[in-house]
Amino acid sequence: MSACAQTLGDSGRMEAVYRAMVDNEATRVEGLLGLGQWYLDQDEAAQAAAQVRPLLAQEDRAWLLLGRALMAEDSLAAARAVLEEGLAQTLTPEKAAEFHFELGSVALGERDYEAAARAFGAVLEGGPRRAMRAAALFYLGHSLQARGERAAAQAAFAELAAAYPDQPQVSEAELLVGELYYEEEEYERALASYERVFDTYPHSKDAPEALYGAAWCQLELERIEPMRDLFLRLVLEHPQHERAHQGLMHIGDYYYNGHQFLKASRLYEQVVERFPETAEALQARQLLAYLADAKADSLYTEGMALYDQGEFVRAIAVLEEVIERYPNTPSEAAAWCNIGVSYYQMDNWRLAALAYEEAISALEGREEEWRALEFARSNREMIGRMYLGEVAAE
Q: Can you tell me whether residue 43 is helix, strand or coil?
């Protein structure tokens, strides 16, 4: 039996258990509450609400479940009203903390960050169990951050990390502390937070983001080798994460902006090879094409400088190198033609004609190089008419 089938079987058995409890008057309340939670877990919020509504007069847990069901249906205003009414009737601080937590969740959904911060603060005052306290600190930090209260948000995240290092929100809390420090240009402190994430929680969902942030901190601190090493570590340890191809692109861009075009090209080639379907791969292809054009143009210019000096044999050798190394570039098209021109200047009509024939063959079908193609055709015709006929007659 597959894990999925087993899970479905267990779920079906639990439903049967709860329905049996509902049929027994002594266990009816617990059965309805259990069935309501079961429906909620199955993403059937309306059915969950139907199970617990009859219990509102006698069971505060029904108010909580109904509020959660309404939240699941995005009926946030109705959920808030239900939770506030249930909170007014609850008698214990522990249960009140649960209501405050759900009210904070509603406020986050409504983007009422002041109300959210107030609700999660109330959770902490109620002395809830460890897991809820950790979650409340996390969402309190989120709410304060959204309100622009950076210092208070950092304090909440720091308290969470220090007091509850085993809770699932800690890695993201450390990551958010790093982001807050980064935004304040406190790069050393941001770096320390990011390092705690990927060193302490290397397999968490936040580790790739932390590596990415740490690399940027190193770049801001002008530490180039550590920056490069962190981006490469990101690629090696999290090759499928979107930050991996972004990291490679950033290293390539760094070298590109520093005019280290060979290093940039190699990195862009890795982006295309490793992540061919990404937006970064498209950008890398465009940059590689541009760099190829630039390098081809540089070598072509070197060849034409030799041509201008009358060094035609050496010029031809360089132009042939342009053709070999940089196919399908404008410089390659011009090189084909100027090999013919060089032979012409050397009065070697037959080789000039052959060069133009090769140029015509190479350029036919390339619409963007129509001028070079017309040049090759007209010069081949001129040589044939003016020189090859005379040589043949001799």
A: coil
